[in-house]
């Protein structure tokens, strides 16, 4: 009966992790282990101490270890993974996750998916939002965010430990888990994990897959959808990758990624066909400076303004003809995929 209570307690603490648990969880488990007697090395210790230690080790191994089996392709050190991505010129596949039911479901789906094969083309790295490892003002952190987002502060009563504080907010990043959580919220605009994100080796976003938006699907359907999503990104590694990066950085905040449905601005699918009665340079001019095209009285610029006013499209005056072509090629390609 004592063994059953011990196992139940360890199982309660460990939960159903599909990953290495945070350090605080290991510490909780350690506190529940049978303790060494205060003194003496006589028969009592030899009779009970070693057997209890063996029971504890076996119990933890049987209960916890099978739950930690994960695809070996996942790295847990972002800095090391980024270095490898640059060396091998491969995109990073990030998994933002924590101890939560949805995260555990996605872990289970990924274990049964095509992730091992796709890892040949990506550098997969798991980022634990509940990682309690002190970050201590790591200099690599600010580059994850827009310039000027963070400021370095030194914390009192922490033996000189430093941290990054979010400017204009009462938010201080002390642990790596807090860094990953803020990164997910501030850069990828997602509040709840799990989240899959693809980055170039230069840390430019390529695409993201938010599990929370697909929970109405079965596990099998989500697995197939993630496989298709990742395989689709492989196609983008060639001619369409730069176009997608341009769309993500310049257009995705206002225009739907599926190119079919409106968002803050109109759907972009078929935009070349809509402008086909005019030189493509007219479309380029409109993208670079839409307000000037409206002022000049271009019929399609005026029609777009009349339909979407008072929303004003952002100007991109510095974008080259070559980049605009790649952007429009990607929009056409993505529209056809959908």
UniProtKB/TrEMBL annotation:
<keyword id="KW-0472">Membrane</keyword>
<dbReference type="InterPro" id="IPR009056">
    <property type="entry name" value="Cyt_c-like_dom"/>
</dbReference>
<keyword id="KW-0812">Transmembrane</keyword>
<dbReference type="GO" id="GO:0020037">
    <property type="term" value="F:heme binding"/>
</dbReference>
<keyword id="KW-0349">Heme</keyword>
<feature type="transmembrane region" description="Helical">
    <location>
        <begin position="45"/>
        <end position="65"/>
    </location>
</feature>
<keyword id="KW-0479">Metal-binding</keyword>
<dbReference type="InterPro" id="IPR036909">
    <property type="entry name" value="Cyt_c-like_dom_sf"/>
</dbReference>
<dbReference type="InterPro" id="IPR036249">
    <property type="entry name" value="Thioredoxin-like_sf"/>
</dbReference>
<feature type="domain" description="Cytochrome c">
    <location>
        <begin position="238"/>
        <end position="335"/>
    </location>
</feature>
<keyword id="KW-0408">Iron</keyword>
<dbReference type="Pfam" id="PF00034">
    <property type="entry name" value="Cytochrom_C"/>
</dbReference>
<protein>
    <recommendedName>
        <fullName>Cytochrome c domain-containing protein</fullName>
    </recommendedName>
</protein>
<keyword id="KW-1133">Transmembrane helix</keyword>
<dbReference type="GO" id="GO:0009055">
    <property type="term" value="F:electron transfer activity"/>
</dbReference>
<dbReference type="GO" id="GO:0046872">
    <property type="term" value="F:metal ion binding"/>
</dbReference>
